[in-house]
Inverse folding.
């Protein structure tokens, strides 16, 4: 089955700096790679995702890159703000329309602290 | 009201007791999941259900059982709780064919087994 590794486990940056979180996956058949943000006392929420037919995707200050050959994908947050402080999870899956394999396997999480 | 509601929010129970965690959703989604969150281990899948008659084991199902009472309700039971089941438990839902729009998570149940 799929296995997802995530690094670093904790990351502290100064406000305005960039933050990068990296994940690797084991199953070359996986085709969908979402990122979730979990704020204190809440459940995870989807912030951005990427499919295997795309190398990079951006949404304002966040971007995700995918290297299928190396089975790596990364989350990039630019111009970090204190409200970006949270736990971030990557995940991977083989996703097909209504497919039986559509279950997410999550990484171990990264606690991001943005210092004002 | 929240789309995915978990009860209770917090629970302390004794070793050996049976406990049930409940999840209900108003999303109309067919698919429901139970995850466990532990520090340093992330979110691990316990059980999932793709419809009322479909129940599947996840990565760490030992010591747990589930019941899908209706499309909107999916319960997780610990038949005889043990201290290493102390964790934060999340229920999530998804719409088949719409998983690319993400899962919807509840706010979690913090369970402590003493």
């Amino acid at each position: 089955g799929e296995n997802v590794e995530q690094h670093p486990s904790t990351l502290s940056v100064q406000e305005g700096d960039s933050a990068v979180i990296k994940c690797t996956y084991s199953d070359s058949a996986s085709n969908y790679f979402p990122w979730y943000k979990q704020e204190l006392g809440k459940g995870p929420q989807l912030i951005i995702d990427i499919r295997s037919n795309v190398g990079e995707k951006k949404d304002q200050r966040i971007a995700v890159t995918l290297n299928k050959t190396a089975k790596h994908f990364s989350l990039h947050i630019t111009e970090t703000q204190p409200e970006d402080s949270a736990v971030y999870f990557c995940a991977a899956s083989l996703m097909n329309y209504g497919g039986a394999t559509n279950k997410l396997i999550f990484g171990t999480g990264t606690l991001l602290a943005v210092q004002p | 009201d929240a789309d995915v509601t978990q009860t209770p929010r917090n629970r302390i129970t004794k070793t050996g007791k049976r406990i049930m965690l409940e999840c209900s959703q108003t999303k109309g989604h067919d698919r429901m999941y139970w995850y466990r969150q532990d520090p340093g281990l992330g979110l691990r899948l316990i059980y999932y259900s793709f419809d009322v008659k479909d129940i599947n084991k996840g990565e760490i199902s030992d010591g747990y059982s589930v019941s899908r009472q209706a499309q909107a309700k999916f319960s997780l039971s610990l038949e005889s709780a043990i201290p290493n089941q102390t964790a934060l438990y999340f229920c999530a839902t998804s719409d088949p064919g719409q998983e690319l729009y993400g899962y919807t998570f509840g706010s979690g149940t913090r369970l402590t087994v003493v």
